[in-house]
Amino acid sequence: MTDMLSTATEPDTPHAGSVPSFAIISGKQVEQALGGREKDLVDLVEATYRLHGAGDSVNPPSYFLRFPDRPTARIIALPASIGGPARVDGLKWISSFPDNVRTGLPRASAVLILNDHDTGYPFACLESSVISATRTAASAALAADWLSRTRSRPRRVGFFGTGLIARYIHTFLAGSGWTFDAVGVHDVSPDSTAGFCGYLRQAGATGQVTVHDSAEDLVRSSDLVVFATVAGRPHVTAPGWFAHNPLVLHVSLRDLAPEVLLASANFVDDVEHCLKADTSPHLVEQRTGNRDFLNGTLYDVLQGRAAPPHDQPVIFSPFGLGVLDLAVGKYVYDQVARAGELRLIDDFFHDLRRYG
């Protein structure tokens, strides 16, 4: 595996004693830096998981800003620090406003701040909805690969929820070598379903595309199920839907009732992060009073310490780690800097004289 975290120091990154610079990187620049590099980014996410699992990171709990007058909305702060060759600190500030989808806007918007390891000065602000979707999709593709290595590799994929995250996950599955005989689609919004099917046609997706009116039909006809919804509480309650033992990427975290998880093998990206904020795994912990239902983390699988069983559904529930955003954000920064396209604000830091 290529060490994608090995990046040369760029001249625009602050150094001790130097005058800090500050760059703004737009969503268009982010997309240009990441487009078509799905395999490299999956490798980058794997390398980051390995660094995090080995303890070469700081990833404190996320902080949720909630609103009494907008109970479905939230803004989340994800502070993090990553070591290794990248050595960068930072913060993702991401809003989730599900009502946006009614007006055609994506649910989430975000920025990412990168801080210099040695001085602490922020040196870049990046539009981060694309970065967030990228690290989520790369993590899902990585999990799909490793969690199916000791099982039959899925040939029928079903997408429950067909927004931006579903599109990115399909792109990353295809870009990292997955092909499917069948692609199932289900969403409560006909417009979202039509838009996702249009994307599949434009992307030249392999496999016959079927729109399922029934959520149960989608799940039962798929051996890889991707949940990418805006659900705030469990709405899939029947363990019998999963009797064929599919691999489930439970990306939206709150779709599955505790009964479904208790009848399955469960893997998460980080135990402490995932079992909070009333995620489905957190609801299981609250019900049972323990964490015995967990089979391990994705890092445990990467290290060979845990393996998914053949005779149960396998559910991967990733909370999403700030260190992944940092790794992808630093990758984007380096790409843009090498191309000489950083948009610097030279006077962003006004008074740098300690004594005036």
TrEMBL record:
<feature type="compositionally biased region" description="Polar residues">
    <location>
        <begin position="1"/>
        <end position="10"/>
    </location>
</feature>
<feature type="region of interest" description="Disordered">
    <location>
        <begin position="1"/>
        <end position="20"/>
    </location>
</feature>
<dbReference type="InterPro" id="IPR023866">
    <property type="entry name" value="SbnB"/>
</dbReference>
<dbReference type="InterPro" id="IPR003462">
    <property type="entry name" value="ODC_Mu_crystall"/>
</dbReference>
<dbReference type="InterPro" id="IPR036291">
    <property type="entry name" value="NAD(P)-bd_dom_sf"/>
</dbReference>
<protein>
    <submittedName>
        <fullName>2,3-diaminopropionate biosynthesis protein SbnB</fullName>
    </submittedName>
</protein>
<dbReference type="Pfam" id="PF02423">
    <property type="entry name" value="OCD_Mu_crystall"/>
</dbReference>
<dbReference type="InterPro" id="IPR023401">
    <property type="entry name" value="ODC_N"/>
</dbReference>
